[in-house]
Write a structure and sequence with these properties.
This protein has about 450 residues and is α/β, with parallel strands linked by helices. It has 3 domains: about 130 residues, 3-Layer(aba) Sandwich (Rossmann fold); about 120 residues, Serine Threonine Protein Phosphatase 5, Tetratricopeptide repeat, CATH 1.25.40.80; about 110 residues, DNA Cyclobutane Dipyrimidine Photolyase, subunit A, domain 3. The chain is about 45% helix and about 5% strand. The chain is built from 18 helices and 5 strands. Strands 3-2-1-4-5 form a 5-stranded parallel sheet. Helix 2 links the parallel strand 2 and strand 3. Helix 13 crosses helix 14. The mean pLDDT is about 90. The protein binds flavin-adenine dinucleotide. The site of flavin-adenine dinucleotide (FAD) has 29 residues, from helix 9, helix 11, helix 14 and helix 16.
Length: about 450
């Protein structure tokens, strides 16, 4: 059988159930599609793919290509829309089956559906490789996913060992050969700007697995993670796994199993539990996105809760450019623009400021994050934004952080604000224009 494997957010050979299924073919065409629409401005002011994320993704693709070549395979990188590129390749190479990893997000689901319609005689298969669980191994049906994270955690928590050990798959060591390999048009992809990242993030499976080993077994950062995870700007205060997890360079099951291994061989404490607990947040949002579909992107959220919000261009720009009246927010937003990363605590603060102080429609903030974050993940991003905006999975409703208090607690001597230039010389106030857009 001739199979086309469509790599998406699963850029790895380890623990990849979808690729394992594809490996049972006579001929295998491995494809990654770079969609030009990612680089064009979207309806919410931002582009889907910013420069930092694109660089990380490209590094990950190059790493994947090296791994595939070592097994006699190749990676076809196509620049074009999947609905055009994939049917053409499928016809050219007499493809009988297309496989990919299952993904949350309505655009992703829509593309899969349109491909099926275009290729009615082709077999389409999806496998769950992004999550800890499969849909079938969840304690309840997806339609019964709890409305809050705590309920979900209580349901699944006891199954940690079971889910990851049972579902994890070994690294692939052989693959069927590629077809006579077609020229790809990767040269048409946008250029990579500024190839050196200011933080030690480098895309690819090898780097993701190295970071897993480093944080757990070399630095033992996991052993005090619960105390350090809220720090704003220390490299080993949190795991930094997110960019590799988001691109699938690292499998969540691999991380879960490594935590278990660490607890077995090194130490088991509240911190080691907490890293698993955070992985469960990611897991919850994965299923939340699949369950709620288009409601993930609604202004009134999955709760359909009407909230007063509008779009003030000057407030939005000030927030994006780190030029508000709030130095801590500015510093975090500058860090995001310059590096493509921001700590979890800072994400909560800037999102709270966006919704509460600046009174903006949360979806514009989420779209800016989508453009900037190297760890952008549709489910975690939109799920967390809904939560902060009080229209998602938070049973307590809208949360507002006291920014002065947070500054005293997390940046008492102003080190973070200084490093990321949070003290704007001419901050943009809330009321620099009146209701009729007339500059004051
Ligand atoms: C407004 C907002 C938007 C966010 N957008 C994203 C996003 O696009 N992509 C993304 O991966 N994370 C997102 N997060 C979650 C979280 O901030 C990042 O996962 C975390 O900061 C990444 O750093 P780390 O890997 O060092 O995390 P660690 O603290 O070391 O956590 C380990 C892993 O657990 C998962 N995790 C931790 N916290 C969360 C959380 N709140 N929600 C979901 N998963 C979590 C991540 O996979 C992370 O890598 C967002 C949070 C907020 C408040």
């Amino acid at each position: 059988m001739h199979t086309l494997y469509w790599f998406t957010r699963d850029l790895r050979l380890h623990d990849n159930a979808a690729l394992l299924a594809a490996s049972k073919s006579d001929v295998l065409l491995c494809v990654y599609v770079v969609d030009p629409r990612w680089f064009a401005p979207g309806p919410l002011q931002s582009r889907a793919m910013g420069t930092h994320r694109w660089r990380f993704l490209w590094q990950s693709l190059m790493g994947l290509e090296r791994s595939l070549r070592a097994l006699g395979q190749r990676l076809h990188i196509a620049y074009g829309e999947p609905e055009t590129v994939l049917p053409k390749l499928a016809h050219e190479h007499r493809v009988a089956r297309i496989i990919r990893s299952r993904q949350p997000g309505i655009q992703e689901a829509g593309q899969w559906q349109r491909l099926k319609e275009q290729l009615p005689n082709t077999l389409f298969q999806q496998f769950e490789t992004l999550s800890l669980f499969t849909e079938g191994s969840l304690p309840r049906a997806l339609s019964e996913l709890p409305d809050t994270f705590s309920q979900f955690r209580k349901q699944v928590e006891k199954t940690r060992e079971r889910c990851s050990e049972r579902l994890r798959i070994r690294t692939l060591t052989s693959l069927p050969p590629p077809p006579g390999f077609p020229e790809d048009n990767r040269g048409d992809c946008p250029a990579i700007a500024d190839p050196q990242h200011p933080l030690p993030f480098r895309g690819g499976e090898e780097m993701g697995l190295a970071q897993l080993k480093q944080f757990l077994f070399v630095d033992h950062g996991i052993a005090q993670y619960k105390e350090t995870r809220n720090e704003l700007d220390t490299w080993d205060a949190s795991s930094k796994f997110s960019p590799w997890l988001a691109n699938g360079c690292l499998s969540a099951r691999e991380v879960a199993d490594s935590i278990t291994e660490y607890e077995r061989t090194e130490t088991r404490n509240e911190s080691t539990y907490w890293l698993w607990f955070e992985l469960l947040w990611r897991e919850y949002y994965y299923w939340y996105a699949l369950k709620h579909g288009a409601n993930l992107f609604r202004r009134d959220g999955v709760q359909r809760k009407k909230r007063q919000a509008t779009f003030y261009g000057h407030r939005f720009m000030a927030w994006c450019q780190g030029n508000t009246e709030y130095p801590l927010v500015n510093a975090a937003m500058n860090q995001l623009r310059e590096t493509g990363y921001m700590s979890n605590r800072a994400r909560q603060l800037v999102a709270s400021c966006f919704v509460n102080e600046l009174e903006l429609d949360w979806r514009y903030g989420a779209a800016w994050f989508e453009q900037q974050l190297i760890d952008y993940d549709v489910a975690s991003n939109y799920g967390n934004w809904q939560y902060l905006a009080g229209v998602g999975a938070d049973p307590r409703g809208l949360r507002q952080f006291d920014l002065d208090k947070q500054m005293r607690q997390f940046d008492p001597v102003g080190e973070f604000i200084k490093r990321w230039h949070g003290n704007s010389k001419q901050p943009v106030g809330l009321h620099t224009i009146d209701a009729a857009d007339w500059p004051l």
